[in-house]
Amino acid sequence: MKKIIITGGAGFIGSHLIEKLIKTEVEEILVIDDLSTGKSANLSKFNDSNKVKFINKKVEDVQNLDETFEGYDFCYHLAAGVGVQYIMENLSKSLLTNILATHEVFEACKKNNIPVLVTSTSEVYGVSEDKEWTEESRSLIGPTTKLRWSYAASKMIDEFLALSEYEEGKLNPIIVRLFNIIGPNQLSEYGMVVPKFIDAALNNNDIIIHGDGSQSRSFTWVDDVTSYFIKLAEMKAYGEVFNIGQTQEITIKDLAELIIETCDSKSQINYIQHEEVFGNKFEDPTRRTPNIDKIVNFTGMTPTKDINSMIKEIVAHKKK
Ligand SMILES: NC(=O)c1ccc[n+]([C@@H]2O[C@H](COP(=O)([O-])OP(=O)(O)OC[C@H]3O[C@@H](n4cnc5c(N)ncnc54)[C@H](O)[C@@H]3O)[C@@H](O)[C@H]2O)c1
Fold first, then answer.
1. If you take atom 35 of ligand 1, which residue's CA is the nearest one?
2. Which CATH superfamily is domain 3-181+221-247+287-303 in?
3. What are the pocket residues of ligand 1 if the criterion is a CB atom closer than 6 Å to any ligand atom?
4. Is the separation of the CB atoms in 296 and 207 below 8 Å?
5. pLDDT, tens digit (0-9, with 9 covering 90-100), for 27-70
6. Tens digit of pLDDT for each residue in 137-192?
7. Calpha distance 244→91 (Å, rounded)
8. 242 C-alpha to center of ligand 1: Å?
């Protein structure tokens, strides 16, 4: 694949993906990003390479997107409203981005016969009561009055649209459901827990846990994620849905303690109820752990880092 499109390429995962692709035989990477949560600094480090082209716009605002997509071989569609805090503060905007931008991208991909990797989320499982979430687990999202589920619902629409178009022979999508991805350069301001806690710990500020801290998550290294993306594209895994995550769980309280220890910080842990932060429009899953057999068997690749080494590496990067 020589010519690649990345929507949302100025964001956290997108810029790591560019870093990996740029070292391959890829000749051109077109980034479309409105910098709503992405940063131009994430792209400026590629200035020396003439491979990256940048359209600083909302996907939905690019005139004649299908013409813009002409001649490209593959599209990684990452543009979306992301992060619990960002979504709760930009409810309808995020919902519409996630549906409309995806629709526009699919239309342009269809017209140009470009396969597309769609970044969905573990949120689509909601509070599923299955012990481990496989790609076939039943989703259990909350009522529409709990607006946090709008993100999950929008990503589900994206998945349904992709799979319907595939079934009708119009589009070649690969769907990935990402479980709490972390790594260097992830921003703290949109509610991502690891960079938020690390920023607090490095400044010896209180670490604020939403809820009682007993909720657990499993965190995945961003480089593993981008390796999976590229492999799935090479393997033409069209019409398939994959969990991408780690099976090692950690409670949010243990995560805070690990970060305090790794940063050698004097931070204290404080607790605040979700309702105090987001009102009564919020509820939080108590666990979120993927079954990753499908992607591991399909690609032959396993996640490379445990939580301790991921936190150490992010802290070292932040200190630099
Ligand atoms: N980071 C995670 O843990 C995680 C988990 C599940 C799913 N995802 C999905 O992965 C993708 C990438 O997430 P990320 O963590 O890199 O977040 P990010 O916020 O860093 O990246 C999203 C990028 O999309 C851009 N963007 C948003 N709306 C846009 C629009 N309408 N047009 C053009 N650009 C737009 C933003 O400016 C940003 O650069 C998203 O689709 C997200 O839903 C991420």
1. 79
2. NAD(P)-binding Rossmann-like Domain (3.40.50.720)
3. 7-8, 10-14, 32-38, 58-60, 78-82, 97, 101, 119, 121, 178, 180-181
4. no
5. 999 999 999 999 999 999 998 889 999 999 999 999 999 999 99
6. 999 998 999 888 999 999 999 999 999 999 999 999 999 999 999 999 999 888 79
7. 26
8. 18
